[in-house]
Amino acid sequence: MPVALLRRRALSTTTLLLAFLATSCDSTKDSPSLVGTGAAPGTGGTASDNGGTGGGSPGGGGTQGVILPDDWEPDEPPPSGLTISPEGAQTLTVTQGQAMPNVVFTATAGGKPVNAAWSVDHGDLGRITPALGGTATLTPTGNFAGTVTVRVGLNGVVVERAVNIRVVSDQNGPGAASGGSQIADDVAELTSGGGVGGVGGEGLGTAVTDAAILAALRAPTGNGQAVGLTFSYPYDGTVFPRGLLAPLVMWDWSTADADAVSLTLANTSGTFSWTGVFGRPAILAQSHGPFVRHPIPQSVWEAATASVGATAGGAPDRLTLSLVVARNGQAFGPISQTWTIAPARLSGTIYYNSYGSQLAKNHGEAVGGDHQFGGAVLSIKVGDTAPRLTAGANGGVGACRTCHSVAAGGSRLVVQHGDVYETSSAYDLDASGGATEAVMANGAEFPALTRDGDKALSPSGQLIALPGGELLTTSGLAPGFTDLGTPMFSPDSSLVVFNPMAGTGVTNPKQKLVVMNFDDATNAFSNPVTVVDASGRPAEERPGWPAFLPDGRSLVFQQQTVAGGNGNNEGALYTRRGAKAQVHWANAAGGTVTPLDKLNGVGYLPDLASPPALTCMADGQSVGGIDPGHADDHNTNYEPTVNPVVSGGYSWVIFTSRRLYGNVATIPPYCSDPRGVDLVQNITTKKLWVAAIDVNAQPGSDASHPAFYLPAQELLAGNSRAFWVLDPCRADGASCETGDQCCNGYCQPGAGDELVCVNQPPAASCSMVQERCERAADCCDPSNVCVGGFCSLASPH
Predict the structure, then answer these.
(1) Matching CATH number, 173-345, of 1.20.120.530, 3.30.565.10, 3.40.630.30, 2.60.40.10
(2) Which of 177, 606, 626, 671 has the fewest CB atoms within 10 Å, i.e. is most exposed?
């Protein structure tokens, strides 16, 4: 269930009862009238539109009005025995191309029809239309599937009926509602920005008009296994959040081309089913590529993910994708995989390094193209189809800005200057995506930033005030640690973790991760605890790039196994020149370290039977021959960071990987330096990926899930070191969807029932999901947990 729906459903019953009492004595006797009662809170929208905004999140409901009879007397006692007919749960099936079904309810009291107040709790699912004679008609919107609760109330008495809405649809070709962003008009669009639809490929295919092909797709006779038909992306078992762009479905098979495909999305509870058939995308006539991938239409993805709820027995609902491909009149398949849809949207902004960006050309040594490329920090807001330039500019190397850190609260970014690497700038970030640069008095390479972005801890152990860069007095770090490697604060800034590159009296410092307490008021560090120790292993096997999970009780990090390059173990933790690493996690108190095999791709990542022959260089070394077939992709995962807020029962890890991106990015894994390979003609595999970790799990078992490609990142560039942070907080009175967007931590109905930021919880004095808390008892739902200062679902649903 989406976060906003959880919030608004909890408030709706109280609101309705108050509304019924208020309206029962407010009318004229002369004629029937609709009395506006003020809608109950909705989900993803306001009561005025009864619909949701924000990519399929369910929307509002509320009281639709009270129709009062001509002969009603205000001082008469209310009728007794209020009830609704028909009794029991009702089921309506919305079928594309057919008339919208409905169900007519009648309210009675004392065995007679009575005019009362009607409402629904889920206005994006259905609309209730009252009429005289005690009746009201529930009509589905058809946006998505689920259960809508119809309520009738009179004088504080409320009776409910459930209506289960199923959605069944078929699509042939792109359709009018699919959106232009998923259709390419020319070849240049295929690799511009984030690619077609923000995910690459050739976009939506054409309608299938050949009756024989349509018949074959509906009843395939070919064995998919016999022709090696497999998915290359996404991965079976992936956990997706709501609100992101639709994934690009990619497949491999021995025929290596298709004339048409059929895609089916259906949830396991049986309430939603969509089948789309598509011919070859028209742009393939210009690009001359094979038909080996196809996107899910964005509108369908939003409806499908919003329709995933819970089965009748309370078990988690899932979303299953099935694929059939046709070639030369015969269809093969289906093959299927199943995903989990987290009941929440991921919001905020992702900031990341790009070393081949076309948005800030400040280096002139690129191979191919116009020989220009750029080093810059780019950003992606959830829902974007392409990145935006945040730090860096066109011009010489002096405009290069890379190697950055971002505050978890989203207010500030610190980045290095490409021409004078020891020089750092602090950028103030605003909610509109703007960034204001201030050169710092003291530099800090990859520093740890406090949540509010007012302090930075440099690898040298200096604590620096931001944005100016003045040095602050600290205690507790020296003389034990003299090089902190890649430090990172916990989301609440009470802890810091680092991989010491050097330390006085510390044995094998490079093979350790150390956690310390930090007092933000006194700038005091204390209680060093070694939580990861690789002593006894080869010197190049080192932990680094650590990041806390939102609860501060565990952390993820890069476990390097091969240093790369010439085997120089004295340098930084590499992600290039053949460096090998996986993402592991550990208790912040020490004692348990676990590899995240599902996140890393152990046992299921595809490889290439016939890798492309490509010569490429990195730092003067030939790297094109290092694992060109991607057989070792599960050992090419680096630089994890974590979204500071738990969403939908999961913590979300974003990391750099050199794995295949299906059949879109397939060149050798270490071909990512634009000075050593033409990244205009070749799409590098150095990209950003996201994976979920169960929030109620602890290191000792693998609680991760297969990762998904981050949409909207620049397709032609090599991308790395991402921070998924909150947007700068919103002041009281500003619109919001969840409390973690607000400076004071609460998002509640305001005037007109629009959700706005407020400085305290509602009269119930408890917090909804993703609102501020100090302990679990602060949360309205007793099953919630308090993680990272916000109420959260306790476990995946």
Answers:
(1) 2.60.40.10
(2) 177
